[in-house]
User: Which sequence fits this backbone?
C-alpha cells in the first residue's frame, strides 16, 4: 500500500482551485499547509494567477516548473477527467478530489465518477474521494484540510471517516476536549478508488498507528474489507462506527457519499467476526478510541469499584453486570489495608463507598492506599474510580497522588468525574495527561473496561 | 403532603452534630445555611458548646429557647431514638437523618431503623433518610446540604435521588454545565418514612416544579408508588432513573440504602404504564431533564434535519428511524426559500447538508432562512440543527440569529454542536440561555425530540 504514502508525505503538492479569499476552502488549504510548516513545495493553481499568502499562483499543472507528487482538487466535477490527464503528464501519483458533484449527487454524477476512475486507473493515479477533504499526518505536520486546523495533537490513533465535514470538527473536538493524540486522519468520501480496505492494509504496517478508528457509511467490496479487518485486528484494535444503518439513514448515505450501506445486522455480525470493535453512536466511538489508546488489557473480568457515593456504586455495579464484567470480592489483606485509612465504623465491600457519613481522615491517603491495595489484590483485574469534585476544594483529591499510585500498578484504571465543571476540567486534564482516561458517566467508565 | 413543607421552608432548624471544623459535614451544613441567606433561625447543637460561624452552639434541643421545626441529625445511629423523643418534646415536625449505620449497614442497623421509625410515628415526626443529605429549595435559598454548595440556579426541575453523594455532585454538574434550573433537590436515603410516593404527591401540586426527575434504587410499596407516578405524570413529565437493576447492582443497593430493587423488567414495564419516562443511564437522565424543561411538545413525528455535514445527516437520520421519528420531505416552498441562500448547484433534501463543497454565501442568513422556512413547513414538526464550530471563527454562525429565528416559530428546536471545545462552550451557553437545548451528539439531539 505504498501509494498511500503519496497522500501522507508528498514532496510537492498542487491545489487546483486555490483562492486568495479568506474563508474559501481553496484559501484554507494553502493556509493550513503553510501554517503547519509543510516541508515540501506548495503550488496554488488558479487561472487568475497572482499570489496567495506569498506563494506564486500557477495557471495550471503544466506551468509548474518542477515535479508534483500530489494534487488536491476543488475543480468542478466536469473538469476532473481532463485534470487527471494533465496530472498524469505531470507525473502526479495521487489526487484528493475535494469537490462534490459525483456519485453522491446522483444522475450524471455517477457517470462522471466512473469516467474519472477509469481515466485515473489507466494513468496510474490513485484517488481519495471525491467529496473528501485531505489527509492530516501529525508525524510530519502535513495538513491538507480545508477545515481551519488550529491545534494538532500527535499520537497513536489513526482516524478515518467517510465524511470530511464529520472528521474535521470531530478531530477538533478530539484535540480540544478528548486528550487523544492522532497519527493520521482523513476521510475517504465517495471511495471511488481508495477504500477502507486499502487504508486498513496501509495502517496495519504504519509504525505511528496503534489504534485504528473507522467511520464508514457503506462498504463496497465486503469480502475484501472484512479480510482487511481480520488482518489488522490481529495486530491493532480496530474500532468501527458504521452509520447508514436504517433505511432512511441509508438513503441519506447515498445522497451524501453515494454509499450503499447494506444490511445493518449482517454488517454488524460480519464486523464482529472479523475482529472489529463496533461502536454504537458517536459518544461510544470516542470513548472506545480513548479506551484503546490509553489502557493496557486486563487479565480478567473482575472490577474493583472505588466511589465516594453508594448511589454511584450501584450504577457502576449495574454497568459491570450489563457488560459481562464481575464485581469481585476484595481480599482480606486489601480490606485491612483500606480500613487503616477510613473511620472505624466504615464497612468495606466492593463497590467501596468510602464516604458514608464522615469523609475519610485524609482523602489523598485514602485513594493512594485503595489503588495500591487493589493493584496487589489477585481478585481484582481492573479499577474504576469515581470522584466527586465540588467547586470548593474540600474533599477533592490530589490527582497527582492518584496518578502516582496508578503508575505503580499494572492494571487498567478508569475514572468517572462529576461535580463542578471547571474543577472537573482541571483534574480531567491532569489525569489524562498522566495516562488515566476519564469518562462522563460511571457506566461509560465501566463499559470502557469491558471493551478491552 | 403538607408535612414535606416542613423540610423545604422551616421557620427554625437545628443541626445535631454541628462542628466548628472546616470540611466536616457538621460545619458545611451551617455554612451553607448562612451563606445562602436562610431566613429562619439556625441552632447548631454540640455538647462542646462554643460558637460556629458566629452562631451560639447549644448543648441539646432542650436548651434552645425557641421553637424548632426541623432537625438535621449527624448523631450516631444508636442515639437517634432518644433524639426523636427529645425532638417530639420540642415540637419538632421533621428530621433529616444524615447519619448512616441504619438498614444500609445491615445487622443491628435494621432494628435500629425500625425502632426509629416506630418512635417517630408515635410522636408525629416525619423522617427523610437515614443516610440522606438535606433538601435544597431554590425559591427561598434554603440549603441544608453538607455538600459545599457554591452555585444555585433557580428553575423548574425537581430533582430527587436516593443518594446524597449522588444528588449533590450531579446537582453541581447541572448548575455548572447543564444550564438547567432547579426548583427543589434532595435525596431520600434509606426511605424509612418519607418515600418516593410522598414526594411525587407533594410535587404534583408544587407550583415551582414543572418537571420531576427521580433517581431511585428501590421501591418499597410498589402499588402506592405507581399510583403516585400515574397521578403526577398526567400533569408533569416524570423522568425516572432506576438503578440496582442487575443482581449485583441490587446487592450493592442493599448495602447502600437498604433498598430492595425488585425485578428490573417488571419495574420498567410498570413505570411505563404509569406514564413515567424511563432513563437508561446517567447521560440519558440528564438529557431528558433538559429536554422536558426546555422544549414544547411537537405536533407530530416529522423531523427536519439541517447540518453542515452529510455524515452527520446520516447519523441523525439513523437516529430518527431508531427512535420512531420520520425524516420528512421538505415542501417545494421550503426548498425554494432555502435555495435562495445556497450556491446554485446545492441539492436540497432532508437531511439538508448545506456545506457540500462551498460554504453558503452567508452562513447566518442560511441558518435564519432555513429555520424560518422549516418553521412554516407543514411537513415538519421539529428541527434538529447540527453545527460545527472551528477554533477559528470562519463558518461559525451567530447564535443570536439562530435564537431569534427559533423564537419566531413554535416547533421544538434542538442543536448538536461539535468542534473546538471553547467555541462550543461559548455558543452552547448563548443557545441554552436563550432556550435552545444543546446535546453532545447528533443521536442524543434527535433522541431528545423523540422523548417528548
Assistant:
Amino acid at each position: 500500500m505504498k501509494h498511500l504514502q503519496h497522500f501522507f508525505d508528498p514532496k510537492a503538492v498542487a491545489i487546483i482551485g486555490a483562492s486568495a479569499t479568506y474563508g474559501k476552502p481553496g484559501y484554507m488549504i494553502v493556509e493550513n499547509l503553510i501554517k503547519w510548516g509543510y516541508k515540501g513545495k506548495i503550488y496554488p493553481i488558479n487561472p487568475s494567477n497572482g499570489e496567495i499568502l506569498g506563494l506564486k499562483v500557477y495557471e495550471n499543472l503544466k506551468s509548474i516548473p518542477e515535479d508534483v507528487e500530489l494534487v488536491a482538487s476543488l475543480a468542478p466535477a466536469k473538469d476532473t477527467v481532463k485534470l487527471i490527464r494533465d496530472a498524469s503528464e505531470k507525473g502526479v501519483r495521487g489526487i484528493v478530489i475535494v469537490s462534490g458533484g459525483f456519485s453522491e449527487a446522483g444522475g450524471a454524477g455517477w457517470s462522471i465518477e466512473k469516467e474519472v476512475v477509469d481515466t485515473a486507473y489507466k494513468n496510474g493515479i490513485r484517488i481519495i474521494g471525491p467529496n473528501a477533504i485531505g489527509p492530516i499526518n501529525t508525524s510530519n505536520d502535513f495538513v491538507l484540510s480545508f477545515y481551519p486546523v488550529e491545534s494538532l495533537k500527535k499520537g497513536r490513533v489513526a482516524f478515518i471517516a467517510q465524511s470530511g465535514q464529520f472528521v474535521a470538527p470531530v478531530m477538533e473536538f478530539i484535540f480540544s476536549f478528548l486528550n487523544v493524540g492522532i497519527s493520521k486522519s482523513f476521510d475517504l468520501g465517495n471511495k471511488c478508488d481508495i477504500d477502507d480496505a486499502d487504508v486498513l492494509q496501509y495502517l496495519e504496517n504504519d509504525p505511528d498507528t496503534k489504534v485504528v478508528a473507522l467511520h464508514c457509511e457503506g462498504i463496497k467490496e465486503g469480502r475484501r474489507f472484512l479480510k482487511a479487518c481480520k488482518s489488522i485486528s490481529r495486530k491493532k484494535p480496530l474500532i468501527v462506527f458504521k452509520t447508514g444503518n436504517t433505511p432512511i439513514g441509508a438513503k441519506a448515505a447515498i445522497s451524501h457519499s453515494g454509499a450503499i450501506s447494506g444490511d445493518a445486522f449482517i454488517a454488524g455480525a460480519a464486523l464482529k467476526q472479523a475482529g472489529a470493535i463496533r461502536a454504537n453512536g458517536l459518544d461510544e466511538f470516542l470513548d472506545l478510541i480513548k479506551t484503546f489508546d490509553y489502557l493496557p488489557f486486563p487479565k480478567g473480568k473482575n472490577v474493583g469499584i472505588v466511589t465516594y457515593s453508594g448511589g454511584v456504586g450501584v450504577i457502576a455495579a449495574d454497568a459491570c453486570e450489563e457488560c459481562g464484567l464481575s464485581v469481585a470480592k476484595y481480599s482480606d489483606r486489601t480490606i485491612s489495608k483500606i480500613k487503616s485509612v477510613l473511620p472505624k465504623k466504615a464497612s468495606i465491600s466492593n463497590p467501596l463507598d468510602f464516604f458514608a457519613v464522615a469523609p475519610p481522615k485524609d482523602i489523598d491517603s485514602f485513594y493512594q492506599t485503595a489503588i495500591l491495595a487493589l493493584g496487589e489484590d489477585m481478585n481484582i483485574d481492573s479499577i474504576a474510580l469515581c470522584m466527586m469534585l465540588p467547586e470548593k476544594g474540600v474533599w477533592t483529591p490530589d490527582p497527582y497522588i492518584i496518578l502516582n499510585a496508578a503508575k505503580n500498578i499494572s492494571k487498567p484504571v478508569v475514572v468517572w468525574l462529576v461535580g463542578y465543571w471547571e474543577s472537573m476540567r482541571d483534574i480531567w486534564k491532569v489525569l489524562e495527561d498522566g495516562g488515566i482516561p476519564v469518562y462522563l458517566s460511571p457506566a461509560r467508565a465501566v463499559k470502557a473496561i469491558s471493551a478491552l
Q: What stands out?
A: Chain A touches chain B through 92 residues (CB under 8 Å). The longest helix of chain A spans residues 108-122. Chain A has a mean pLDDT of 90.
